[in-house]
Amino acid sequence: MDKNKSGFAVKIAISALMFAVVILASVLLTRIQNDAISKLPYVIGSPVTPSTEMPPGMVMKMFEVPPGEPVPTIAFDLIHDSMGGWDVHVMTTNFTFSPEHLNGAPVAGEGHVHLYIDQNLIIMLGPWYHIDSLTPGVHTIRVGLFNNDHSAYSVNGARIESQKMIGASSTNAMAM
Fold first, then answer.
1. Chain segment 11-68, per-residue pLDDT in tens
2. Number of C-alpha atoms within 13 angstroms, CB side, residue 73?
3. N or C: which end of the chain has fewer CB within 10 A?
4. End-to-end Cα, the chain, rounded Å
């Protein structure tokens, strides 16, 4: 019986260690992402609305997934952070984040994500982003797949994106 308990304890310790490695890798990716962001010719998180111009170097164009290529998909979770705000976790298939190729030539199956909080654009170079706070009210959160040159991935003219509405209160509660 004691062998079973010690085996279970080892499994828990290994699971905790693997979780810590994933968290540390996310922190490292965020650091790399922030270093890459500091070299961009535009400000990440600047509002993009119909009445404002796109950031320099960004032209809204489409990248039609070539015939025969696997079609990328995107989904995301909004996780209420116990320390405040929300964590956005983007999940993709047939797609690789490639921050090292940002602003480069388009390549099927790679790129980055455009995260829109209402009309505010945030460029995600990895699968996680933390939203510090939102004003009370209902907000639209949208994520879309974009190629290295900021062209929107599309299939038959339809963008590959996902959207959710969330409600924020003055106490930072979240409802979906």
1. 887 877 777 666 666 655 555 555 554 444 444 443 343 334 455 545 578 999 999 9
2. 4
3. N
4. 45
Nearest to 80 by CA among 144, 138, 117, 133: 133
Identify the pLDDT of residue 31. 57
- Written as one letter, the residue type at 20 is A
Buried b (16+ CB within 10 A) or exposed e, 66-99: eeeeeebebebeeeeeeeebbebebebeebebbb
Phi, psi (rounded to 5 degrees) for 82? -65, -20
> Tokens 């490292």 appear where?
28
Sign of CA dihedral 18, 19, 23, 29: positive
3-state secondary structure the chain: CHHHHHHHHHHHHHHHHHHHHHHHHHHHHHHHHHHHHCCCCCCCCCECCCCCCCCCCCCCCEEECCCCCCCCEEEEEEEECCCCCEEEEEEEECCEECHHHCCCCCCCCEEEEEEEECCEEEEECCCEEEECCCCCEEEEEEEEEECCCCCEEEECCEECEEEEEEEECCCCCEEC
Residue 133, φ and ψ in degrees, nearest 5: -160, 160
